[in-house]
Amino acid sequence: MNIKRKLAVFTALSLSMAAVPGTVFADEFVAEPGQRYDAETLARMKDNVLEYEEIELLIDEYNPTLKNLRQTYQDNRENVGKDAARLKEQVFSGSGAMAEQAGFMLDQANSIEGMIGYGGAAAYAQLVYASEVLSQQSEQMLLSADSITQMTPQMLRLQTVETPKAALIAGAQSAVVGYEQLLLAKENLENGIELLELVYESTQTQAAAGLATQNDVLKARQNLESTQATRLTIDSNIQKTRQSLCTMLGWEYTDTPEIQKVPSADLTRIDRMNPETDKAAAVDNNFTRRYNVLSYETLTDGSVQQQNMVRTLENEAAEIASELTNLYNQVLQKRNEYQTAIAAYELEKTKMDTAERKHSVGMIGRLEYKQQVNAYKTAEINIKTADLALFQAMETYDWAVKGNLQISQ
Question: Which domain holds residue 200?
């Protein structure tokens, strides 16, 4: 990773603007003259390790789409509307880059959609979500281009820097979660292959003894080969997701940084969530609504357009509050699914202990034992998958509070 060289390039793009109210990603931190980050932070960013907690920093410093959008803002903030055609073209270009990334993630998701039985459902859902985050922001940027001639510098900054930045961070975070879910799906898949190999071998033995038909053997072989083919698909998607993350976060797509595991879900975070008390911050921080508040200020007092905007702002506030409640309920649902997965694991653990004892004294055969091993490992992986889903639900809720929630235009 050519971090040192890239740091010099991207630090020059720093903006000395006020931080977004209610958000955690400030635009500038000056540890000493000319430096945005302290020595410890710089060291983390220069290593060849991708930690979930540093995604925000990496997007801020190295993401090429954000770099271009920042340059668009710098080039046009003093003359918004004077060269609307050129500015629109730049906004369209930034929107296209985000749409391309969204489409790439959606293609990856679609290629594993059928892997439901091996943990692919979670990875599919995660990559679709990451795609939607970026796609929605791409569409929002396109819509904003229509009002460029009426834009103020504050509106331009919000639309071309702050909003895309949040979407890129959330999208990258979601993609990292999806990457780990793909790894878990592969692990589950490989456990299944081991079992299917034994089933195929056992079916062949039974057929030789007249206890199974050649059709049974064929089916066992087809099941094995189909699952092996699925493993090739998931390997390809793991590689593609890694490459996508590399290009989003500052590495070359051929680089091989260590991607560390996503933090475990902290259940105490749920205790701090309350849609009723959080909705005020969610409404005030919402990027779409903030843009419309700024737009309201450009309209003629008492005009029909201003009156319509008042109604729009009221509707948006109600929609944000409603959606925040839905996201909170999703967190509670994912917590229940996580707790169910733990209970299922404990049951399989008890069965595994029994199977171990029986197998050691010859009371069950190799195939029956292997079936229980597979069930146990699957239950173990299901806990990790449910934990990731719960973590993502919490992140989505928190992002909504910080303003990154798509609402009706």
Answer: 1-263
Per-residue pLDDT of 35-50, as tens digits, reads: 677 888 888 888 899 9
pLDDT of residue 73: 86
Rounded CA-CA distance 264/274 in Å is: 21
What Å distances lie between residue 95 and 62, 137, 226, 258, 328, CA to CA? 18, 8, 39, 30, 30
168 with 205, same domain?
Answer: yes
Task: Say if residue 190's pLDDT is above 70.
Answer: yes
Choosing from 263, 294, 309, the residue where a domain stops is 263
Which of 98-112, 177-191, 324-338, 364-378 is predicted with the least confidence, judged by mean pLDDT? 98-112
The reply to whether 257 and 277 lie within a common domain is: no
Regarding whether 288 and 190 lie in a shared domain, the answer is: no
Q: Which of 221, 236, 201 is nearest to 115 (CA)?
A: 236
Count of domains observed in the chain: 2
Partners of 35 in the beta sheet?
32
Cα separation, 396 vs 400, in Å, equals 6
Distance, in Å, from the CA atom of 33 to the CA atom of 49, rounded to the nearest integer, reads 27
pLDDT at 300: 86
Q: Which residue has the higher pLDDT, 273 or 64?
A: 273
Distance CA 9, CA 6 (A): 5
